[in-house]
Specification:
The complex is a heterodimer of chains A (about 700) and B (about 130). Chain A is mostly beta strands and about 700 residues long. Chain A is built from five helices and 41 strands. In chain A, about 5% of the residues lie in helices and about 30% in strands. Chain A is globular and about 65 Å long. Chain B has seven helices and no strands. In chain B, helix 3 runs antiparallel to helix 4, helix 4 packs antiparallel against helix 5 and helix 5 packs antiparallel against helix 6. Classes of the chains: A mainly beta (about 700), B mainly alpha (about 130).
Chain lengths: ~700, ~130
């Protein structure tokens, strides 16, 4: 088909299927560098935080900071559970060992809005936990990619809508089976004006529907009236995987406003009929942040579908993988990009949502900045208007060798602002219960290829990747207190023990990509990357996440495995650094020791920092929810959760009381108990209001 | 040593210790020493060959020798183990200092074995032909 004919057909197809809202996007096909008139989507007002938690990341800047001050280090010991709500969404059938809800509610007005692990939308009374409505989109177990996760939902108020009009305010979520769903925030009824009866099919333009290969687990970013979403493309399956395309949909109509396919820079609309968005490209499985004023959306991109071998990557994939990309939210036009790993063959995809801050500079001025944590531990601080780093970033020489020495990058960027990286491992860091298992790990250490950070993948022997793919920082992201000027970052400190498996050996092992096995047959029980086929490349990949010893289940590296750190925002200096998590639910052979000793466990999930001077965080594998004094790092309160707290907590105000809330959903890979509770804490009613703060919005 | 052995000999329980219980105890501790010692010896030699720590090979050897000497009902087992244990403590603090989690694999099991060896000491004293 000629180019002109293709364009014409696309125009017709789009206009017919999606309505007039698509006209500008389709019109952009005629030029290589399309620019939509900015007046079309003016900056709106962002939702005020204060006593609310209107966005997944807290406020519109994704700081995870609450200006509430009722609960303080002095009175936190009297914090008590006020209510507990159960979503009822627990694993059944082949979803066993695949649950990791990771849910963080939002709070707007007097309601909480959340999704369960399998995308049931729920509204609760924020003060009492009483259910107001629920909408079950009936997601099949087969759609679960690696985990049944729904990290959250997004709220949108239609500008100029009559307050009592249907869906004047709406809750929008992406689902595991790749639907974008909008319901009325007041009733939970599907929004008839959005897509086809409240739903948009995200499989459009992606290709063959393989349940579980393409799934949304993160809340969309809504900026300038555009719902921006990527999707999780299940890692390591095949080179010919669903596209990592990022799409923007009109928050009112659900019409496609733009599509950003990094390998098709001049195309802004859907691919021509019969074609797909470019397959196998880096995706965005985590949450974007945005600047409504600048009209930019900031996309933390992941890696190409084949994570540990790069020989088949296109130049575009190499240029964009593991980068933060800023797009014009109204048009999908790229404004800038910043790559954190060159030629990423370590699955160091950007997992954290980036946070917006006004960075104080010498002379009292401040710069609109964006703080970007990474899995390899570096924290980058960029000017969010330009993507330029505000602190030195050095290109440092890294080890060569491996199976593709000629293609590896000779250098990698290292942030001189702050790094969560620890000194390189030595044989003496190996651990165990007894000298015998410690010796086993020492032998593995000596047998493996290891030359510090960015040791390239090898096949003839194992290689050590440190830090592993859980970070550094993962999707829990960082919390930033702009008043105190402090970044609170929890992190993992664990290596992975990996090996590339030659194709012949992988075939003998029966490793097959998700599109060649029965639906729902994959995932869950094993760790991500433990025997991933990487079909289309010469190697499959075997990842021993955490580098664990068979039989005892202990990790080869000595503790701590995770910590939490306070960092001075202006300078990047460490203020305090503590191990996070106790040994109470951990031990050899998976037996809990019930030891109240702080060991520093693996952790997954982020924190909240409050004006009252507290950091609230669960995340660790000890199933404790705790409050930490932000000044000292000391744990000043804790409570045992009924399941693993691998979720970001929130803080909000209702009926004059400050609440902190967490949804302990557990996590199959972190081996914590699965649950369906939403638990809210506050000070006893007679004490609420006696704190230092006013308990309300600033 | 002679005072210790005479104390044991005059104890009212020594008669019982001379019988089955004590012997089985010694054999059990010997088997523990061999079960840990043999793989530590073999693995330790391999680790040294790989360029790793030189601690494990001699430590494994000490454990194996302790086990063999225990099976021979020789009191030298205790001396060999005390030497192995002392070396272990010195090495552990040299390598890991006062990082207590790091000392778990280095010191806990060896200390348990030390207690076990000391536990069968009375039975050994009764069994060693040199003390009869």
């Amino acid at each position: 088909m000629t180019r002109v004919a293709r364009r014409a057909r696309l125009f017709l197809f789009s206009a017919l299927s999606s309505g007039l809202a698509l006209l500008p996007a389709a019109a952009q096909q005629s030029g290589p560098a399309p620019e939509a008139a900015p007046a079309e989507r003016p900056a709106g007002a962002v939702l005020p935080a204060g006593g609310d938690w209107p966005y997944w990341g807290g406020d519109a800047d994704a700081t995870r900071f609450s200006s509430l001050g009722q609960i303080t280090p002095e009175n936190v010991s009297r914090l008590e559970k006020v209510w507990e709500y159960r979503t009822g969404d627990l694993p059944t059938g082949n979803a066993e060992n695949k649950y990791a809800a990771e849910t963080t509610p939002i709070k707007v007005g007097d309601s909480l809005y959340l999704c369960s692990a399998k995308n049931i939308l729920i509204a609760l009374d924020a003060a009492t936990g009483e259910e107001r409505w629920r909408h079950d989109p009936q997601v099949s177990n087969d759609a679960i990619p690696y985990s049944a996760s729904c990290r959250g939902v997004s709220y949108f108020a239609v500008p100029d809508a009559a307050p009592d009009a249907p869906c004047a305010t709406r809750i929008i979520e992406g689902t595991l089976d790749a639907r974008l769903i909008a319901v009325d925030a007041r009733t939970g009824q599907l929004c008839a004006d959005f897509g086809a009866n409240g739903e948009v099919d995200l499989w459009a333009g992606i290709g063959e529907r393989v349940p579980g290969w393409y799934a949304v687990t993160a809340p969309p970013a809504i900026v300038r009236g555009v719902v921006v979403t990527g999707a999780q493309v299940k890692d390591g399956q095949a080179e010919n995987a669903p596209s990592g395309v990022i799409r923007g949909y009109d928050a009112v109509t659900g019409a496609l406003v733009w599509a950003w396919d990094l390998a098709e820079p001049t195309r802004r609309g859907a691919p021509p009929e019969g074609e797909t968005y470019t397959r196998g490209t880096p995706n965005m499985w985590t949450t974007a942040s945005f600047d409504e004023e600048l009209g930019l959306v900031f996309l933390p991109l992941g890696n190409s579908s084949v994570d540990y071998w790069g020989g088949n990557r296109s130049e575009a994939e190499k240029a964009y993988s593991t980068s933060l990309v800023a797009l014009d939210a109204a048009t999908g036009t790229e404004r800038w990009r910043f790559q954190t790993v060159h030629y990423d063959v370590w699955d160091y995809d950007l997992g954290s949502q980036a946070t917006l801050v006004d960075l104080p500079r010498e002379g009292g001025e401040s710069v609109p900045a964006i703080v970007l944590p990474s899995k390899q531990g570096d924290i980058f601080v960029l000017d969010r208007r330009t993507g330029e780093s505000l602190f030195p970033v050095e290109e440092v020489e890294v080890p060569g060798g491996g199976v593709e020495p000629d293609r590896l990058s000779k250098t990698q960027p290292v942030s001189r602002y702050h790094s969560l990286l620890f000194p390189r491992l030595t044989e003496a860091d190996m651990w165990g219960m007894t000298p015998l298992d410690q010796l086993f790990c020492r032998i593995q250490f000596r047998q493996a290829s290891y030359d510090g950070p960015y040791t390239p993948p090898t096949s003839e022997r194992h290689f050590i990747q440190y830090p592993g793919y859980n970070g550094g920082s993962d999707w829990g992201s960082v919390a930033i207190d702009p008043q105190r000027g402090v970044i609170v970052a929890n992190y993992n400190d664990m290596p992975n023990h990996n090996r590339l498996i030659p194709r012949e050996e992988a075939d003998a092992m029966g490793l097959k990509p998700i599109n060649e096995v029965p639906p729902g047959a994959q995932g869950g029980a094993n760790a991500e990357g433990a025997g991933d086929p990487q079909a289309g490349s010469p190697y499959a990949i075997d990842v021993n996440a955490g580098w664990r010893v068979p039989f005892t289940g202990l990790l080869c590296k000595e503790p701590p495995y995770g910590g939490i750190r306070a960092i001075e925002l202006a300078t990047g200096k460490t203020l305090w650094d503590k191990p996070l998590g106790t040994a109470r639910k951990n031990g050899p052979f998976g037996i809990p020791t019930y030891l109240p000793l702080t060991i520093g466990t693996p952790n997954n999930g982020g924190s909240v920092v409050t004006a009252g001077g507290l950091v609230f965080i669960a995340a660790a594998t000890d199933d404790l929810f705790r409050a930490i004094d932000v000044e000292t790092g000391e744990v000043v309160w804790q409570d045992a959760l009924p399941a693993g707290g691998q979720a970001n907590p929130i803080a909000y105000e209702a009926d004059g009381r400050e609440f902190v809330l967490i949804a302990p959903g557990g996590h199959h890979f972190m081996e914590t108990p699965v649950g369906d509770s939403i638990i809210a804490y506050a000070l006893p009613k007679d004490e609420a209001g006696e704190g230092e703060g006013d308990g309300g919005a600033r | 040593m002679s005072t210790l052995s005479s104390t044991v000999r005059t104890s009212p329980h020594s008669q019982a210790a001379r019988q089955g219980g004590g012997w089985w105890g010694i054999v059990a501790v010997a088997l523990v020493c061999l079960a840990f010692g043999l793989p530590i010896l073999v693995g330790g030699v391999y680790l040294a060959w790989l360029g790793g720590s030189l601690y494990y090979a001699p430590a494994g050897f000490g454990l194996v020798l302790t086990g063999i000497l225990l099976l021979c009902l020789s009191l030298n087992a205790v001396w060999v183990y005390l030497l192995t244990y002392a070396g272990t403590v010195v090495w552990a603090f040299w390598e890991a200092g006062f990082h207590w989690w790091a000392q778990v694999p280095r010191l806990v099991a060896p200390t348990v074995v030390l207690l076990l060896v000391l536990l069968v000491l009375p039975a050994l004293l009764n069994r060693d032909p040199r003390y009869h």
